């Protein structure tokens, strides 16, 4: 497993605890359990939304069965998952980007990280939320904002391409597609943190984090061209 970002945060779960949790989730006794990367992705969504998913429900989703949760190993895993959830909540509310737990796409030493399982698990959390994420949003700007933050996940799971082709729309190919995938990978951690803070603010538990007016290189150019800042006015920056 690889971690995309190293930070100086005080974690709520230790490396040894993560290793133990990873081993428990991979145990054949939990044949329907999520992997560690999937558990993190799912929890990032389950802890967000209009109403966070209750602990009992997300434990069942991650461990796969009531029998698994009730077992001795399941109880140990549940305790570690509570630590993981606490750590995720701390990271998502922090100014630093979330540290993603990702597995490589292959066995080679230089194999790239596999974002798809993480993103699929997150979107599963969105789909199985206590309340629909979009139904309660009366403001079209909020709907558009949330769609934009979810877009990297849709790209990395292939759902954005499938939707585009279903509607007869063009989809990037070659280097343009490679750049879109790279950008989506880079934007993922920031996007899920902003989504978490958005829902926390909606529930009255915080404020939406802003970037003090600074334009990110992947943000829309403030000139109104519709292009990314790095491809427009920021090209010479």
TrEMBL record:
<dbReference type="InterPro" id="IPR011978">
    <property type="entry name" value="YgfB-like"/>
</dbReference>
<dbReference type="Pfam" id="PF02810">
    <property type="entry name" value="SEC-C"/>
</dbReference>
<dbReference type="Pfam" id="PF03695">
    <property type="entry name" value="UPF0149"/>
</dbReference>
<dbReference type="InterPro" id="IPR004027">
    <property type="entry name" value="SEC_C_motif"/>
</dbReference>
<dbReference type="InterPro" id="IPR036255">
    <property type="entry name" value="YgfB-like_sf"/>
</dbReference>
<protein>
    <submittedName>
        <fullName>UPF0149 family protein</fullName>
    </submittedName>
</protein>
